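Ticket opened by: R.M.
Priority: normal
Category: complex prediction / small molecule

The reporter submitted a protein together with pyridoxal-5'-phosphate and asked that the result be attached to this ticket for the collaborator who will pick it up next week. Submitted input follows.
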Amino acid sequence: MDTTQSRLWYERAQAVILGGVNSPSRAFKAVGGGYPIVMAKGEGSRFTDVDGNNYIDYLAAYGPLIHGHAHPQVMQALKAAADDGILYGTPTKWEVEFAEMLRLAIPDLERIRFVNSGTEAVMTTIRVARGVTGRNKLIKFEGCYHGHSDAMLVAAGSGPSSIGVPDSAGVPQTTAADVITVPYNDLNALVDALAVHGSEVAAVLVEPIVGNFGMVPPESDTYLRDVIKVAHQAGALVIFDEVITAFRFHYGSAAQLYDVHPDLYALGKIIGGGLPIGAYGGSKDLMEKVAPLGPVYQAGTMAGNPASMRAGMACLNALMDPKVYERMTQFGLTLEKGILASAAKAGLPVTLNRIGGAFTVYFTDRKVTQYSHAKASDSERFAAMFRGLLKRGVLLAPSKYEAWFVSTAHTEADVVATLKAVDDTFMEMAQ
Ligand code: PLP
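Result attached by the on-call engineer:
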């Protein structure tokens, strides 16, 4: 596969765009370096790069593209939005319709506010929680990613009482000191942390089904319920970061799958149909603490822009038929079985975590239920798989901590071709 043009564009990019990429996760640093593939066109389940090579896409732009590229209804909505003028800075009917649509799907969202990214959505839920409780501390779970706001770029050392240290330069120590990190799927660690810090904790933040150290579901059906219970006992609010999970597995939230009710939700990715978006919401009482009704401030020039609203509604409309989820799940299952069979044939230790059409392949023979397990999985083997698949025309996210996302655009032929590429790659790796 000739990727010369990608290399040349990347070299040119490096002279003007910091590090050659507009988001660090797009660089190939975690998969042995080199230049990332520069894409020119997306169509359905496939990408074409600047050299004309074709790839089956499981990156899905890190999640939003649940319908693949250029879905006809989303494109139609976008074209109509362009024709009507793309930004108003006034209320529009589309934001009302979209908020109603989200509330119908997720009734906990009694009041919603649209923002422009998942980062903004999470950041604002934190401000609301702090504003409402009058407390500063936050508890998050090791390895969960909640966007790049200061407080969320903190990884605490192990142990329930440990105080966070910044994971990024530029995050004040005082901010980090307010963030406590505990392992996911370990209720006792959360209970212990709340025993030490509980009276100061404004919120416990969680990805209800983790997507950021690979796909990791709660180990028990009661885990999320217990997280909410112990947080509430300490007087803390619970924020579900559903930026990845909302509308991923069914037409609604992950909270609904476990029949639980967090206080606040942060949404993003899928709900924008590929356009920039974020949203947060919760009960009327809590949300009314936000300006213009309440003292917690949040605003946005682009918030609720007509293009994102109309593309988002078209995207969700095309998800209303439960059959689309059944199909993604079926393809996910077929991929899972094939990948595990190829790994066994090649003698490679693989653990595969899958929920519906989203899954992660870890090179380890252990179960992966916490960040430390994902971290301990073999990075070099992941890089070898990534590169082996790339040269065979299958594009994954360049990190062992990300997921493969099956979209509604994937076909049986894509699945067959992917499994052939996986089998050949694993045989090559076994040599
Ligand atoms: N929350 C979760 C769970 C995410 O996965 C991400 C992004 O990957 C974010 C928040 C941040 O969203 P954005 O990149 O739109 O700011």
